[in-house]
Every structure is written in structure tokens, then in C-alpha cells.
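Suppose you are handed only these lines of text.
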Amino acid sequence: MTHAAPQPIFRHDYKAPDYLVEHIGLVFRLDAEATRVTARLTVRRNGTHDRPMLLNGEKLVLDAVRVDGEALAEDQDYSVTDRFLSIARPPAAFVLETEVTINPSANTELEGLYVSGGNFCTQCEPEGFRKITYFVDRPDIMARYTVRMEADKARVPLLLSNGNRIDQGELADGRHFAVWEDPFPKPSYLFALVAGDLAGVHDSYTTGSGRKVDLSIWVQHGNESKCAHAMKSLQQAMKWDEEVYGLEYDLDLFNIVAVDDFNFGAMENKSLNIFNSKYVLADQQTATDTDYSNIAGIVAHEYFHNWSGNRVTCRDWFQLSLKEGLTVFRDQEFSADHGERAVERIGDVRRLRAAQFPEDSGPLAHPVRPDSYIEINNFYTSTVYEKGAEVVRMYRTLLGARGYRKGTDLYFQRHDGNAVTCDDFRAAMADANGADFGQFERWYDTAGTPVVKAQGQWDAEAGTYALTLTQEGDVARHMPVAVGLIGADGRDLRLRLTGESIDGADSTTRVLELKQKEETFIFTSVNTRPVPSLLRGFSAPVKLEMEESDADLAFRLAHDSDGFNRWEAGQKLATRLLLARLKAAEAGSNGPSAEPLIDALSAVLDSGIREPAFAALALTLPGEGYIAEQLATSDPEQIHAVREALRREIADTLWDKLQATYAATQGHEPFAATPAQAGRRALRNAVLAYIAAAGRREALNMLLAQYQDSDNMTERLAALTLLADETAPEAEAALEDFHTRWRMNPLVMGKWFAIQAASSREDTLARVLKLTQHPAFDARNPNKVYALIGGFAFSNPARFNKADGSGYRFLAEQALAIDKLNPSVGAHLLESLSRWRRLEPGRASLMQEELRRVVATAGISSDLYEIASKSLA
Ligand code: B3K
Ligand code: ZN
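From them, the structure of the protein bound to zinc ion can be written out as follows.
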């Protein structure tokens, strides 16, 4: 069978639903191979029309259809295809009952109802509910749910769904039941069911208005001791949302369930969040500091969705960023308030630049609010999430914290219980503040990263500094540009724009509101040559271009009061050097001296121990992907070689200081996952990475010692990651030792796969191929697939982009194989083949060849088809 090209769906075709569902009563007779689902829908016609009622349904075996208790006749009263059930002439108000059978055990897509670790669980966003029962599966249908579950009591003692449990009891033959009712109307994508044998960890939270909420985290037996961090994070998130947004939790219980097989991070189902166990379980021995911080961020993110997503939801999937951009911004600020603000912000921007900027300049580019899609699962992208968060952040930067809060208050008050659009959010921000956000729509409807050029002119005589900002391209956007001017003593000047009175709003950072294609802002009373610090805190998601000398960059790396820009200055210094050296390498010469950069990094090391988390980031050179992004076309192996050579030069030159810092960052206190300790460990690991880069024998011994002697996974894994680049037998032995210790722990085995996949060893592809046959690897488990195959394709540019195309071929084969089991995971892997236009011609054509092969393969999913065909276009 050949594949008819799947057709796109367009945002402009949105129509209000023909029928509304007010209530749905579900009965599940749970069985691993044959679960029976009865659905009782209370339906009302929407408007005046005589159209049939069309319900979505996939992979369902239809056993019965009834309207108001009367069985319907096929073809006459209803018709059914492999995607829809159509009810021919329904009355204006009626009860529709369907009975279907589904097979949770055979569900490898992990969408709908499936089995993980022997337990039943669900994933419905965006379109999984239609794999459970026939329904009008779109987010603007908000219904109340009552759910009855029946199962074998011994094997399935726990029965959970959304809302409150209103009944439970025993049935014949050792079975039992529970009935849950959710008082809040919700879209079908927020439905959840969990049934199985799990251990519960319990605590509580009392809201500001005095409501006691029972909190439970459900995990596999034996993992109870690894839930404390997730529980504490949940309590902090509940408190933070009250304090910062005035939003309280609205039910008496909140459940989190951890499962090992999950397509992404976690899911915000009403009062029953289901999580990838990777983002719940943590202890000192098995989780890194990064894991701890991801857990806090994701637990908070899913909790925050209770308001930004659940109480106020999306009208259609084109509005996805309405909930995701807003909720990412909320979780970013939560993390900033609980950690080091500048360090968190640097992390946000690094992620944005590593994933979203490339996406926005490649064939898969799309606006924050896309205009069309083939498969909505392909649009859970960094543009919708991370750029969407930047867009929300800009409202706050433009309006200030108070104005922004007025805007969110109005948004939640106006739209509570409704399914709305990005325009509604923008209107709430504007109306609450009497502000004009008309031009701001460009951030939602136009793809691409804007480029802003800056030029400064200090007039010594007039004592003015004129800053001209120019937006490239046809579309002028409305954006905040936060600016500081630094005096010769390293201190910020007090800023005043022309026309402002002396006692006007002068401060050291000013937010300029840029709206035109070109605007000049003139600061007065600038009596020494200032060093400008622009786009402080990364105030807009743009590429800023400005001439700046090495000396000014080094000065800002030492003195900029804005932590983000201080880091940015160092990155710019390093990027410039790396690009010059790449150019020189092509011409067969050495390129410029690294002295200015090494001096600057030396100064970072001098003060490193006082601000270790920042120093770790400042010491780390821009990644290979980021360097490639600065070039029209590139050779990733060459970038790797040049970057490694520079790392070695830095390590050789600063050897003694690196050793001293390593010694000074040895931990003495008992382990705690605090920002302070995590900062110290981050600096220690960054320094160890340089020490390893020097390639001396004593370095190998230090790696082995850190691997063996550490009492925590952060340090142990960092050492093992560096050892995985080595070919020495001791390094192999360490990898083997790690496997022996942790082979029973799937999350730790994921780390073991990931570091081998990211190894710079020449034989990495061969090893990855071999690891796909390892007993701990499982192509059905997304974590393992992303660790091993994703780790190779996304985190190892040098080995993935081998000039002979073997990496591309491997990836295409894996994506095709995974596609048969789990299309959304297969499609995500294939995104690694989308950037061929930015590669030198030889690799570019090898990459295209693989994409063509994928498109030409019969029977591929629409998910995979969309990524492959768009990547080629
Ligand atoms: N809303 C879910 C993501 C669903 C992804 C479906 N492919 C988790 C989140 O963003 O919070
Ligand atoms: Zn989300």
C-alpha cells in the first residue's frame, strides 16, 4: 500500500463545534488485553442545523451505539470508519451511549490507555482520548466527567481518576470498583485514569484560604524513598502560585503518578498528574543536580497548568502556546525565585538558543501560534514552549510586575472555565493596563528570530550617548530592550533619557520600548565613555548585533551588574575567537591568539569559588551547535576539532589554577540538593572537564578517583562522562562498573546509554549500534530511545555528522523502526535530519538522501511523513 500524502489542518478553518457534550459518564472494565469502555454522553446541539454528529475514534472495536436508550442500526442511523463515528439525525438534546473494546497491552504508541510496568495509565493530550472511546475530541468541548473503574482487586488495588472519589466497593469474583467525579468541566485531553499496584507517599498542603489538600505521589513499590524532593517542590509550587499570581488550588486532593514508559516529561491531567518517573524520583545516589532541578521545574509546571491550561484552556491546538508558553514562563520564574536568578536565566537562554533558534531558521520553522499542521504532536516544539515563554516574559518586562499581574488577574477572571485563544490573552494584558499590544501580534504570527542591530555614539562635549536600534527585515516588532551603561570604574551610570526631568525615573537599567524599524534613544549626563550593556536579562528573543572590542567584552565579563550579560560577554569573546580559528583552520593557519580569552577565564577562576554556579557557566565554551549556528554552512567535525584544541590550550595555560579550584571545590558537608552545593559541584565538574582536556596521565587518575570516591551521582556521572571519551582500559572498566552497580535501575541505565552515545570516541557509532542490542535497551521505552539514539543524534554533532553519512543512515533506520511502534517518538528523532541546508555540500546531500528514503517508505505514519517532507521542502 502506498501512502496518500496526509493533509494539513488550517487555523483559519476553525468552526465552533456542532454538538456540545455537557456530561460524560465512563465505565471501564479493566483488562490488560480487552478493556470494555462504556461512555454515556449528554449531548446538546449547538445552534440550528441538521448536520450529523461526528465523533472521533481510533483503534476502537465498536460493540454498541444507543441514542436515548434505543439501539441504532448501522448505515441507517450511524456509520463508522477507522477514524469517525457519525450519528445521522440526532435530536436537539439526547444521551448517546457507546460500548467499545480496546487493547491496552498492545498500545505501544503510549497514547490513550496503555500498560506501563504492569499498571494501567493514560495519556490523552492532544488526541489520545479518541483511542479510549468515541468522543468529540477537541479542547473546546468542556464536559463534566464521572468515571467508574472495575478491576481485579488483588492485581489492581488502586483505582484513580480526576476529581474526587465518590464511591467504592466490592464486586463478585474478587473484583472491586471505584467511582470518581470531577466537578470542573474539562476538555478530553485532561482526562486521566491510573489503575494498578503502586505505593503511595502522602503529605498535605493548606492553602491561603485554609483548604487542606491531600497530596499523594504514587510510585512502584521500592521507590517510596525517592519522592521527597518532588513532594517538597509541589508544596513550594502551590505556595508560589498563591503569592505571585494569587491562584489557589481548587480541590481537596492532588495526585502525581510516576510511570517508566512516557512519551515526554509529564502531563497536567486535572488533579491526577502523570509523570515520566525521570521527573519524580531522586536521591543522592541516583539523581544529578540537574535531575533535581528538572524535577522541581516540571512538578511546578504541571501544577501551574491547573490554572494556566485547565481552568482556562485552549480553544484549538493552534493556541497551544497560550497554555505552554505561559506555563513555561511561570515555571522559569518559580525556579528563578528558588535558585539563583541569573544562573536560571542563562540556562533558559542556552536552551532557547540550542533548540529554538535553529528550529526558527530551518525548514520546520513555524510561528508561536502555527497556521497549519499535519500532526499536532509534532508541534510540541521549543518554539511553542520556549519562544512562547519569551513572549509572555516580554509583557512582564514592558508592563512591569504589577501591570503584568493586573493582566493575568483579568485573564483568569474573564476566561475561567473557557477555551480561549492567544488573542484573548493579549487583549487581557492590553485591557488591564490601557496598553496597546496591536503590533505585538507579530510575535505570534511570524516565524523567525528577529535581528536587531545596535550602534552607540558618545558625544563627549554634549555629554550624551545616542543609541540607535535597527530591526532587520520587513516586520517591525514591539519589544523591550533593557539597557545599562557602565562607567570606567565598572559601575552602572544612572540613566536619564532626553526630556526627562532630573527627578524622573532614573535608574541603572532602563527598558526601552522599541516599536519602529529604527529608533534612536539619547541618554543625557553621560560624562565618561560608557560601555553599553544591551538586552540585559535577554529582554527579547532576538539576535543582537553590535560591534564591541575584546577589551570591552572582557571588561563586561568582569563588571556587568547584569548576570546574564556578564556571561553573554564571555560567550561572545569565545565565539569570536572560535569563528576566527575555524576560518584560519580552513586556510591552514593558526588563527588569532587566545590570550584575551584565557586572561578573562583566568579572572573567572580567581573569583570562581565565590559564585561557583556562574563561574561554571562562564568557563564553559559555547557549544558546537551554537558555533555551527553562526555559520552559513559548516563541517561539524571541524568545529569539534577546533573547539577541543582551544579547550586543551586553555587547560594547559591555566593548569595550576584549575588544580587549585578543583581542590577548593571538594565537598565536605553532607549531601544536599541545594543551589549552593549544586553550584559548587557544577564548578568542580567544569574544572574537571578542562583538566581532562589537557590529556595528561594525571588527569585520567583524577577522573577515576572522582568516579570512585564521590558520594553523589552529579560528580560520579560527570567523571564517567569524561571517562567515556577515553580509550584507556581503566575507562572501559569504569563503564562496566557503573553498569554492574545500576543495571536494575532504568533511570540510571538511561544515563549510561546517554554518555556512551555522546562520547567523542571515533568508534561511537559502532558502540551505539551494539548498545541497541543490550538487554537494558528497549525500543518501546521512550527514555531509553531518547538516551541512546537521541543522545547520539542530538548531543554528539561530531560523530553523528561523520562525513561518510553513516550517522544519518543509522538515524533514519532507527526512526523508521521506532515509527512502527511509536510515531511521535520516531518523528522527533527524525528532526535531527532537518538541518542539511546548514551543512557543507557533501554531508548535506547524504542527509537529504536519508530523508528521501524515509518519505518513499510505504506505510510510514503521518507524524514521520510531516517531518521528513517538510525537512526536504
Ligand atoms: N501538556 C503536556 C505535553 C503533552 C505533549 C503531547 N505530545 C505536558 C506539558 O507541557 O506540561
Ligand atoms: Zn506544559
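What can we learn from it? The longest strand covers residues 175-186. The pocket of (3S)-3,7-diaminoheptanoic acid (ligand 1) is lined by residues 125-126, 264, 266-268, 301-302, 305, 324, 377, 380, 824 (CB under 6 Å).
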